[in-house]
């Protein structure tokens, strides 16, 4: 279990605005393993921005801007739904890209493991967010770990063959969900506002 598993940061005055999303954080060992993978890829792939190891996560629901008051209300609901869910196991599985074939916008690692439980958890989170007035995402849910963004157009065209022979990717136990705040221009960029344990007594 993460040391902060039962914490919820004090949210500021209701006039403050937060850019929010709900996700699954990776334990430190998985962060380290993925950082080694990313470092090896960085030597041969010309992406402009590589994700800070502490920022790598599995998104459950992107929410956008919200008041601190609304974030606090959502945190209450997330704590309750997390307590009714069970921990699960995930592992990173393969590499891929989103965007134009010659200049992808995102380099990602796939997610495998307890995918049915993950999908059920994501639906519960999306429902809690909808009840607090956050609009549902139009896209189908595709869990992944973003490793890098924006392939450099000045470099040679991207080739999927460059993803072949990737090293082994980590497995981890998911024991909580996190309400994150995004900070533009900061590394790491994502601040946990609340960490909510899965299952009673975790």
UniProtKB/TrEMBL annotation:
<dbReference type="InterPro" id="IPR009097">
    <property type="entry name" value="Cyclic_Pdiesterase"/>
</dbReference>
<dbReference type="Pfam" id="PF13563">
    <property type="entry name" value="2_5_RNA_ligase2"/>
</dbReference>
<dbReference type="InterPro" id="IPR004175">
    <property type="entry name" value="RNA_CPDase"/>
</dbReference>
<comment type="function">
    <text>Hydrolyzes RNA 2',3'-cyclic phosphodiester to an RNA 2'-phosphomonoester.</text>
</comment>
<feature type="short sequence motif" description="HXTX 1">
    <location>
        <begin position="57"/>
        <end position="60"/>
    </location>
</feature>
<keyword id="KW-0378">Hydrolase</keyword>
<comment type="similarity">
    <text>Belongs to the 2H phosphoesterase superfamily. ThpR family.</text>
</comment>
<feature type="active site" description="Proton donor">
    <location>
        <position position="57"/>
    </location>
</feature>
<feature type="active site" description="Proton acceptor">
    <location>
        <position position="144"/>
    </location>
</feature>
<protein>
    <recommendedName>
        <fullName>RNA 2',3'-cyclic phosphodiesterase</fullName>
        <ecNumber>3.1.4.58</ecNumber>
    </recommendedName>
</protein>
<feature type="short sequence motif" description="HXTX 2">
    <location>
        <begin position="144"/>
        <end position="147"/>
    </location>
</feature>
